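tl;dr need the bound structure. longer version: we got a ligand (hypoxanthine) that a collaborator sent over and nobodys looked at where it sits. i said id run it. heres the input, straight from their email, havent touched it
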Amino acid sequence: MPNLNEVIRNTPKAELHIHVEGSLEPEMMFDLARRNGVSLPYGDVDEVRRAYSFRNLQEFLDLYYEGMSVLRTEDDFFALADAYLRRAAADNVVHVEMFFDPQAHTARGVSLRALMDGLERASDCSRERGVSVSLILCFLRHLTETEAFETLEAAEPCRDRLLGVGLDSSEVGHPPSKFARVFEAARDMGLRLVAHAGEEGPPEYVWEALDILGVERIDHGNRALEDDALVARLREDRIPLTVCPLSNLELRVVDDLAAHPIKRMLDLGLLATVNSDDPAYFGGYINENFRRVAEAVDLSTDDIQTLARNSFTASFAA
Ligand code: HPA
Ligand code: ZN
Protein backbone atom coordinates (compact mmCIF):
# COMPACT_ATOMS: atom_id res chain seq x y z
CA MET A 1 0.00 0.00 0.00
CA PRO A 2 1.75 3.22 -1.12
CA ASN A 3 1.68 6.04 1.41
CA LEU A 4 -0.30 9.19 0.77
CA ASN A 5 2.73 11.24 -0.27
CA GLU A 6 3.59 8.68 -2.93
CA VAL A 7 0.01 8.74 -4.19
CA ILE A 8 0.15 12.53 -4.37
CA ARG A 9 3.50 12.45 -6.17
CA ASN A 10 2.55 9.70 -8.60
CA THR A 11 -0.94 10.88 -9.57
CA PRO A 12 -1.10 12.97 -12.75
CA LYS A 13 -3.05 16.17 -12.24
CA ALA A 14 -4.17 19.39 -13.91
CA GLU A 15 -3.56 22.79 -12.35
CA LEU A 16 -6.43 25.20 -13.01
CA HIS A 17 -5.80 28.03 -10.54
CA ILE A 18 -2.29 29.40 -10.83
CA HIS A 19 -1.45 33.08 -11.30
CA VAL A 20 1.85 32.97 -13.14
CA GLU A 21 2.92 36.22 -11.45
CA GLY A 22 2.30 34.48 -8.12
CA SER A 23 5.02 31.95 -8.97
CA LEU A 24 7.71 34.67 -8.90
CA GLU A 25 10.20 33.36 -6.33
CA PRO A 26 12.24 35.95 -4.40
CA GLU A 27 15.48 34.75 -6.04
CA MET A 28 14.13 35.52 -9.51
CA MET A 29 12.62 38.77 -8.21
CA PHE A 30 16.11 39.91 -7.16
CA ASP A 31 17.78 38.74 -10.38
CA LEU A 32 15.26 40.60 -12.53
CA ALA A 33 15.34 43.69 -10.32
CA ARG A 34 19.11 43.85 -10.81
CA ARG A 35 18.89 43.19 -14.55
CA ASN A 36 16.14 45.77 -15.09
CA GLY A 37 17.35 48.43 -12.65
CA VAL A 38 14.21 48.18 -10.51
CA SER A 39 14.67 48.96 -6.82
CA LEU A 40 13.01 46.73 -4.23
CA PRO A 41 12.30 47.70 -0.63
CA TYR A 42 14.17 44.60 0.64
CA GLY A 43 17.85 43.89 1.31
CA ASP A 44 17.82 40.20 0.42
CA VAL A 45 15.57 37.22 -0.31
CA ASP A 46 15.20 36.35 3.36
CA GLU A 47 13.79 39.77 4.04
CA VAL A 48 11.28 39.25 1.21
CA ARG A 49 10.20 35.91 2.66
CA ARG A 50 9.82 37.45 6.12
CA ALA A 51 7.52 40.10 4.64
CA TYR A 52 5.14 37.36 3.45
CA SER A 53 2.74 37.41 6.36
CA PHE A 54 -0.76 38.45 5.44
CA ARG A 55 -3.94 39.21 7.36
CA ASN A 56 -6.19 39.30 4.32
CA LEU A 57 -6.30 39.27 0.51
CA GLN A 58 -5.44 42.98 0.14
CA GLU A 59 -2.24 42.73 2.18
CA PHE A 60 -1.10 39.97 -0.14
CA LEU A 61 -2.13 41.84 -3.30
CA ASP A 62 -0.07 44.89 -2.28
CA LEU A 63 3.13 42.78 -2.21
CA TYR A 64 2.09 40.74 -5.25
CA TYR A 65 1.83 43.88 -7.44
CA GLU A 66 5.04 45.29 -5.98
CA GLY A 67 6.91 42.02 -6.63
CA MET A 68 5.81 41.72 -10.25
CA SER A 69 7.08 45.23 -11.01
CA VAL A 70 10.48 43.62 -11.79
CA LEU A 71 8.97 41.90 -14.87
CA ARG A 72 9.62 44.03 -17.93
CA THR A 73 10.69 42.14 -21.04
CA GLU A 74 9.53 39.17 -23.06
CA ASP A 75 12.49 37.20 -21.67
CA ASP A 76 11.38 38.00 -18.11
CA PHE A 77 7.89 36.59 -18.75
CA PHE A 78 9.42 33.58 -20.47
CA ALA A 79 11.72 32.93 -17.48
CA LEU A 80 8.84 33.29 -15.03
CA ALA A 81 6.45 30.95 -16.86
CA ASP A 82 9.20 28.48 -17.78
CA ALA A 83 10.30 28.13 -14.14
CA TYR A 84 6.70 27.57 -13.02
CA LEU A 85 5.97 25.02 -15.76
CA ARG A 86 9.11 23.01 -14.96
CA ARG A 87 8.28 23.07 -11.26
CA ALA A 88 4.68 21.99 -11.95
CA ALA A 89 5.90 19.13 -14.17
CA ALA A 90 8.05 17.92 -11.25
CA ASP A 91 4.77 17.62 -9.28
CA ASN A 92 3.28 15.46 -12.04
CA VAL A 93 1.12 18.25 -13.43
CA VAL A 94 0.34 17.29 -17.03
CA HIS A 95 -2.04 20.13 -17.94
CA VAL A 96 -2.10 23.79 -16.88
CA GLU A 97 -4.69 26.53 -17.38
CA MET A 98 -2.62 29.54 -16.40
CA PHE A 99 -3.89 32.94 -15.24
CA PHE A 100 -2.09 36.16 -16.01
CA ASP A 101 -2.86 39.79 -15.13
CA PRO A 102 -2.11 41.98 -18.18
CA GLN A 103 -3.38 45.18 -16.59
CA ALA A 104 -0.78 44.91 -13.84
CA HIS A 105 1.91 45.08 -16.54
CA THR A 106 0.49 47.38 -19.21
CA ALA A 107 -0.13 49.99 -16.46
CA ARG A 108 3.69 50.03 -16.01
CA GLY A 109 4.39 50.50 -19.71
CA VAL A 110 5.02 46.84 -20.54
CA SER A 111 3.53 45.87 -23.89
CA LEU A 112 0.87 43.19 -24.09
CA ARG A 113 2.92 41.73 -26.94
CA ALA A 114 6.06 41.22 -24.77
CA LEU A 115 3.92 39.61 -22.08
CA MET A 116 2.00 37.32 -24.43
CA ASP A 117 5.07 36.36 -26.48
CA GLY A 118 7.01 35.39 -23.34
CA LEU A 119 4.15 33.32 -21.93
CA GLU A 120 3.48 31.69 -25.29
CA ARG A 121 7.14 30.75 -25.81
CA ALA A 122 7.29 29.13 -22.36
CA SER A 123 4.01 27.32 -23.10
CA ASP A 124 5.44 25.96 -26.37
CA CYS A 125 8.53 24.66 -24.55
CA SER A 126 6.30 23.00 -21.95
CA ARG A 127 4.18 21.33 -24.65
CA GLU A 128 7.36 19.92 -26.18
CA ARG A 129 8.12 18.37 -22.78
CA GLY A 130 4.62 16.83 -22.70
CA VAL A 131 2.72 19.26 -20.45
CA SER A 132 -0.16 21.08 -22.15
CA VAL A 133 -0.73 24.75 -21.30
CA SER A 134 -3.53 27.23 -21.99
CA LEU A 135 -3.71 30.89 -21.01
CA ILE A 136 -6.55 32.66 -19.19
CA LEU A 137 -6.45 36.47 -19.18
CA CYS A 138 -7.72 37.90 -15.89
CA PHE A 139 -9.31 41.32 -15.46
CA LEU A 140 -8.40 43.19 -12.29
CA ARG A 141 -11.73 43.75 -10.60
CA HIS A 142 -10.56 46.81 -8.61
CA LEU A 143 -10.20 48.63 -11.96
CA THR A 144 -13.11 49.92 -14.03
CA GLU A 145 -15.34 48.21 -16.57
CA THR A 146 -13.92 50.59 -19.21
CA GLU A 147 -10.37 49.49 -18.41
CA ALA A 148 -11.42 45.85 -18.67
CA PHE A 149 -12.98 46.56 -22.09
CA GLU A 150 -9.77 48.28 -23.23
CA THR A 151 -7.79 45.23 -22.16
CA LEU A 152 -10.10 42.82 -23.97
CA GLU A 153 -9.87 44.95 -27.11
CA ALA A 154 -6.07 45.09 -26.90
CA ALA A 155 -6.00 41.29 -26.58
CA GLU A 156 -8.25 40.71 -29.58
CA PRO A 157 -5.36 40.27 -32.07
CA CYS A 158 -4.05 37.51 -29.74
CA ARG A 159 -7.48 35.88 -29.43
CA ASP A 160 -6.22 32.52 -30.73
CA ARG A 161 -3.61 32.32 -28.00
CA LEU A 162 -6.22 32.60 -25.24
CA LEU A 163 -8.41 29.92 -23.73
CA GLY A 164 -10.55 32.26 -21.69
CA VAL A 165 -10.92 35.17 -19.33
CA GLY A 166 -11.11 35.37 -15.54
CA LEU A 167 -11.62 37.92 -12.79
CA ASP A 168 -9.25 38.46 -9.86
CA SER A 169 -7.79 41.00 -7.39
CA SER A 170 -9.68 42.75 -4.54
CA GLU A 171 -13.04 41.01 -4.27
CA VAL A 172 -15.17 42.78 -1.66
CA GLY A 173 -16.79 45.89 -3.14
CA HIS A 174 -16.18 44.67 -6.70
CA PRO A 175 -19.00 42.20 -7.44
CA PRO A 176 -18.99 40.13 -10.63
CA SER A 177 -21.97 42.13 -11.96
CA LYS A 178 -19.60 45.10 -12.46
CA PHE A 179 -18.16 43.14 -15.41
CA ALA A 180 -21.36 41.72 -16.92
CA ARG A 181 -20.89 43.42 -20.30
CA VAL A 182 -17.18 42.62 -20.53
CA PHE A 183 -17.85 38.94 -19.94
CA GLU A 184 -20.64 39.00 -22.51
CA ALA A 185 -18.20 40.42 -25.06
CA ALA A 186 -15.59 37.79 -24.12
CA ARG A 187 -18.18 35.06 -24.57
CA ASP A 188 -19.03 36.46 -28.01
CA MET A 189 -15.33 36.10 -28.87
CA GLY A 190 -15.62 32.40 -28.06
CA LEU A 191 -13.59 32.66 -24.84
CA ARG A 192 -14.25 30.40 -21.85
CA LEU A 193 -15.33 32.18 -18.67
CA VAL A 194 -14.19 31.77 -15.06
CA ALA A 195 -14.13 34.13 -12.06
CA HIS A 196 -12.77 34.31 -8.53
CA ALA A 197 -15.78 34.40 -6.22
CA GLY A 198 -16.53 33.54 -2.60
CA GLU A 199 -12.92 33.86 -1.43
CA GLU A 200 -13.62 36.88 0.79
CA GLY A 201 -16.84 37.92 -0.94
CA PRO A 202 -20.29 36.62 0.06
CA PRO A 203 -22.27 33.77 -1.55
CA GLU A 204 -24.14 36.44 -3.51
CA TYR A 205 -20.98 37.04 -5.54
CA VAL A 206 -20.88 33.36 -6.51
CA TRP A 207 -24.53 33.58 -7.64
CA GLU A 208 -23.64 36.65 -9.72
CA ALA A 209 -20.64 34.93 -11.28
CA LEU A 210 -22.91 32.06 -12.34
CA ASP A 211 -26.11 33.89 -13.28
CA ILE A 212 -24.84 37.26 -14.52
CA LEU A 213 -21.38 36.46 -15.92
CA GLY A 214 -22.27 32.89 -16.90
CA VAL A 215 -18.95 31.45 -15.74
CA GLU A 216 -18.26 27.75 -16.14
CA ARG A 217 -15.96 27.46 -13.12
CA ILE A 218 -15.61 29.26 -9.78
CA ASP A 219 -12.13 30.09 -8.49
CA HIS A 220 -12.03 29.50 -4.71
CA GLY A 221 -15.77 29.42 -3.87
CA ASN A 222 -15.20 28.69 -0.17
CA ARG A 223 -18.02 30.94 1.00
CA ALA A 224 -20.54 29.16 -1.25
CA LEU A 225 -20.81 26.63 1.55
CA GLU A 226 -22.73 29.23 3.62
CA ASP A 227 -25.70 28.93 1.23
CA ASP A 228 -27.43 25.53 0.89
CA ALA A 229 -29.28 26.52 -2.28
CA LEU A 230 -26.01 27.60 -3.87
CA VAL A 231 -24.34 24.31 -2.89
CA ALA A 232 -27.25 22.48 -4.58
CA ARG A 233 -26.82 24.60 -7.71
CA LEU A 234 -23.05 23.96 -7.87
CA ARG A 235 -23.61 20.25 -7.36
CA GLU A 236 -26.45 19.89 -9.87
CA ASP A 237 -24.73 21.89 -12.59
CA ARG A 238 -21.36 20.23 -11.88
CA ILE A 239 -19.70 23.66 -11.56
CA PRO A 240 -16.07 23.09 -10.57
CA LEU A 241 -14.42 24.91 -7.67
CA THR A 242 -10.68 25.57 -7.98
CA VAL A 243 -9.72 25.49 -4.32
CA CYS A 244 -6.33 26.64 -2.96
CA PRO A 245 -5.69 25.35 0.58
CA LEU A 246 -2.39 27.09 1.40
CA SER A 247 -3.67 30.35 -0.07
CA ASN A 248 -6.77 30.03 2.11
CA LEU A 249 -4.57 29.51 5.16
CA GLU A 250 -2.14 32.35 4.38
CA LEU A 251 -4.92 34.84 3.54
CA ARG A 252 -6.96 33.80 6.60
CA VAL A 253 -9.92 32.50 4.62
CA VAL A 254 -9.55 29.61 7.08
CA ASP A 255 -8.05 29.98 10.58
CA ASP A 256 -6.41 26.60 10.50
CA LEU A 257 -5.89 23.98 7.76
CA ALA A 258 -7.72 21.49 10.01
CA ALA A 259 -10.82 23.66 9.40
CA HIS A 260 -10.34 23.61 5.62
CA PRO A 261 -13.57 22.68 3.80
CA ILE A 262 -12.04 20.55 1.01
CA LYS A 263 -13.27 17.27 2.51
CA ARG A 264 -16.69 18.77 3.17
CA MET A 265 -16.86 19.93 -0.45
CA LEU A 266 -16.21 16.36 -1.64
CA ASP A 267 -18.75 14.97 0.84
CA LEU A 268 -21.32 17.46 -0.48
CA GLY A 269 -20.73 16.09 -3.99
CA LEU A 270 -19.03 19.23 -5.31
CA LEU A 271 -16.49 19.08 -8.12
CA ALA A 272 -13.63 20.45 -6.03
CA THR A 273 -9.99 20.60 -7.17
CA VAL A 274 -6.72 21.46 -5.38
CA ASN A 275 -4.46 24.20 -6.76
CA SER A 276 -1.61 26.46 -5.66
CA ASP A 277 -2.89 30.00 -6.53
CA ASP A 278 0.34 31.95 -5.84
CA PRO A 279 2.87 29.31 -4.79
CA ALA A 280 5.86 31.63 -4.29
CA TYR A 281 3.84 33.64 -1.76
CA PHE A 282 1.88 30.92 0.05
CA GLY A 283 4.54 28.33 0.79
CA GLY A 284 4.03 25.58 -1.72
CA TYR A 285 3.31 24.26 -5.19
CA ILE A 286 0.43 21.92 -5.96
CA ASN A 287 1.75 18.75 -4.31
CA GLU A 288 2.54 20.67 -1.14
CA ASN A 289 -1.07 21.91 -1.16
CA PHE A 290 -2.26 18.30 -1.47
CA ARG A 291 0.13 17.05 1.26
CA ARG A 292 -0.63 19.74 3.82
CA VAL A 293 -4.40 19.67 3.42
CA ALA A 294 -4.49 15.86 3.24
CA GLU A 295 -2.69 15.68 6.55
CA ALA A 296 -4.79 18.41 8.14
CA VAL A 297 -8.24 17.02 7.25
CA ASP A 298 -7.28 13.38 6.89
CA LEU A 299 -7.89 12.83 3.19
CA SER A 300 -7.85 9.21 2.01
CA THR A 301 -6.09 7.79 -1.04
CA ASP A 302 -9.51 7.76 -2.70
CA ASP A 303 -10.02 11.45 -1.89
CA ILE A 304 -6.65 12.31 -3.47
CA GLN A 305 -7.54 10.37 -6.58
CA THR A 306 -10.99 11.95 -6.74
CA LEU A 307 -9.46 15.44 -6.48
CA ALA A 308 -6.94 14.64 -9.22
CA ARG A 309 -9.67 13.15 -11.44
CA ASN A 310 -11.82 16.23 -10.78
CA SER A 311 -9.00 18.45 -12.07
CA PHE A 312 -9.29 16.87 -15.52
CA THR A 313 -13.11 16.85 -15.48
CA ALA A 314 -13.03 20.53 -14.48
CA SER A 315 -10.45 21.49 -17.11
CA PHE A 316 -11.42 22.92 -20.47
CA ALA A 317 -9.23 20.27 -22.08
CA ALA A 318 -11.68 17.55 -20.98
N1 HPA B 1 -7.57 36.27 -5.16
C1 HPA B 1 -7.75 37.36 -5.90
N2 HPA B 1 -6.83 37.83 -6.70
C2 HPA B 1 -5.67 37.19 -6.80
C3 HPA B 1 -5.43 36.05 -6.08
C4 HPA B 1 -6.43 35.55 -5.22
O1 HPA B 1 -6.32 34.53 -4.51
N3 HPA B 1 -4.18 35.66 -6.41
C5 HPA B 1 -3.69 36.53 -7.32
N4 HPA B 1 -4.60 37.47 -7.56
ZN1 ZN C 1 -6.39 33.18 -7.43
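gonna send this back to them w/ a short note. The beta strands are 13-19, 93-100, 132-140, 164-168, 192-197, 217-220, 240-243, 271-274.
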